[in-house]
Amino acid sequence: MSIDQVIDSEVKGNDIVLFMKGTPQFPMCGFSGQVVQILDNLGVAYKGLNVLEDDQLRQGIKTYSNWPTIPQLYVKGEFVGGCDIIREMFQSGELQSLFTDKGIARKAPATA
Question: Sorting pLDDT into bands at 50, 70 and 90, what band is 107?
């Protein structure tokens, strides 16, 4: 299976996929960490793929999306954007609307 096929399978097989540096539990760069915080804050389930573990994946995702930077967020098979775009969409409420429109379930926020 080519790296394009692997990426395509992940993007189409999961509702939300984040190609990132590090893992959701331990982001290895500030930009990946910001996107993880936003997704966690919204209470959506997502799959994080660590591009630092696989150089083919790291280069392949940039080619796949024609986007030069990581992290990259995909929702229901569609490329949404990188850190700056995700942050702006979150701040404007657009990201929350996207999840609602795509039928992505959000967990209720934890209560203290």
Answer: confident
Q: pLDDT for 12-26, tens place per residue?
A: 999 999 999 999 999
| Order of all β-strands in the sheet with 72-75 | 47-50, 16-20, 72-75, 78-81
82 CB contacts (<8 Å, ≥6 apart)? 31, 67, 69, 70, 71, 72, 73
> Considering Cα of 13, then 66, then 62, then 90, what sign does the dihedral take?
negative
Asked whether residue 110 is domain-assigned, the answer is: no
Q: What is the domain count for the chain?
A: 1
pLDDT band at 87 (very low <50, low <70, confident <90, very high): very high
Could you tell me which residues are beta bridge partners of residue 72? 19
